[in-house]
Amino acid sequence: MPDPADVLAPLTPQALAVLRHPEPSAWAVALELTLSQPVDIGSRIVAAHRAVPMMGARLTERGWESGDPPPVEVGHGPVLLRPELLRPFWLHADPPLRVAMADDRMRVAFVGHHAAFDGLGLLALATAVIADRLPNQSAEPHARGGGRGVPMWSRVAELTRPAHRVAPSAGGAGEVLRARRLTIGGAAVASRAAAACVAAVAAHNRARQTRWQRVGLSVAVGGPPGIGNVASYRRVDVRAGDDVAAAVTRALAEGKEPIEFGRGPMIPSWAAPLARRLSDSMLV
Question: Average pLDDT over the chain, rounded to whole?
């Protein structure tokens, strides 16, 4: 029998929903940092893992269970384009954090699965590792914000008309990465960023002659700052030509979470092929 001490966090309904989410493998957040001087990331990851064991955890039917710290991949070329960073996550076998470093040790990338680290959580963890200030386990947020559930009937139409997907890049292994540096300020940043993502994928899919008419967005809503995932989620369904920013703004104001994070954990495993049709086009 597994040792209960190995369970870092119990399996909440939200964690179970992520574990059984129709497309959990691509729910990731990526950061690439340029350093002012070389650092020994490997030793810092090992030390940080002792303070934040979630870095090496595995998500099972029992909850988040302890595991080895993630390895640090070192190699040539753009650090964020490493195949080992971009392959799908399988949280029952993989740690929810991946780390890669350029061979000059001046650039480092962190890729974390959203089930364990939301955007602010990954940034806090990366900052602590780079600054060599070990995070305190007690500083990890435990409370999770949530919204009202979306009625099941409102998702029925998606079973027959599922959201379109992002077209794979030519020559890749099914993973898609498009990178562009920009600065966003002012109000409604999430709504404007979502609109920009939808427009960028529209051009990407059009160039590959792939449909992009029905777009399903999962939007993460941040919670208290800290290392972990305290985000709640909103589902936004739009069509090509719709005002994406306005739709996201309305969804954020309504505070309704998609069915996957409410009754989703009660969906039996045999219904997975059907539930997969409820999956999103992208996570914003």
Answer: 78
End-to-end, the C-alpha distance of the chain in Å comes to 39
The amino acid that residue 24 corresponds to is P
Q: For the chain, what are the domain ranges?
A: 4-139, 148-283
H or E segment at 126?
helix 119-130
Three-state secondary structure call for residue 113? strand
pLDDT tens-digit profile of 37-73?
998 999 999 999 998 999 999 988 788 899 999 999 9
Q: Using DSSP bridges, classify how beta strands 97-102 and 72-75 pair: parallel, antiparallel or unpaired.
A: parallel
Tally DSSP H helices, then E strands, for the chain.
8, 12
* CA atoms of 111 and 101, how far apart (whole Å): 12
Assigned superfamily of 4-139: Chloramphenicol acetyltransferase-like domain (3.30.559.10)
* Structure-token match 């990890």, residue found: 140
